[in-house]
Amino acid sequence: MKTANYRQLVERYIEAYNQFDVEGMLVPLHKDVEFRNVANGEVNLATSGKASFRQQAEQATQYFSQREQRVTEWKVDNDQVEATIDYSAIAALDFPNGLKKGDSLRLSGQSIFRFADGQIIFIEDRS
Q1: Distance between CA 125 and CA 11 in Å, rounded?
Q2: Are 109 and 21 within 8 A, CB to CB?
Q3: Of 29, 65, 100, 112, which has the highest C-beta tally within 10 A?
Q4: How would you class 23 by CB atoms within 10 Å of its CB: exposed for 0-12, middle for 13-18, buried for 19 or more?
Q5: d(CA 67, CA 65)
Q6: 0.70 cut: is pTM over it?
Q7: Domain-wise residue ranges, the chain
């Protein structure tokens, strides 16, 4: 598969994410997809397989009333895509860390995507 197609898969995934479209997020994912969220150098969430990813993604739709990942830079290298992301969201509920319903959240980070069989098999979000 050409690297341009990998970027298209990532764009499709991010577009679905921004629209709270869990089914759309799942379309480009491999059945054995691995997902990790890393904050401050520590893994705070990990899933293995499409069913586990789906469950986490469905839960996450309840956390924010609005959310957007906007790619500011792309690095495409063989079978890996790294996207530099500006993330913004509005909390839909109160969080234990002090974020209150209606508060805005802004983060910057990177998302790493790897591929197998023409699908996304690995996602790591770093912030």
Answers
A1: 15
A2: no
A3: 29
A4: exposed
A5: 7
A6: yes
A7: 3-126
Q: What is the CATH number of domain 3-126?
A: 3.10.450.50
Contact 124, 118 (CB under 8 A): no
Burial of residue 18, with CB atoms counted within 10 A of its CB: 0-12 exposed, 13-18 middle, 19 or more buried:
middle
Percent of the chain scored above 90 by pLDDT? Answer: 92
Sheet containing 104-116: which strands, arranged edge to edge?
Answer: 42-48, 29-39, 119-126, 104-116, 80-91, 64-77
Tens of pLDDT, residues 91-103: 999 999 999 999 9
Q: How far is CA 91 from CA 77, 83, 88, in A?
A: 35, 24, 10
How confident is the model over 33-78, as pLDDT tens digits? 999 999 989 999 999 999 999 999 999 999 999 999 999 999 998 8
By CB neighbour count within 10 A (0-12 exposed, 13-18 middle, 19+ buried), where does 41 fall?
exposed
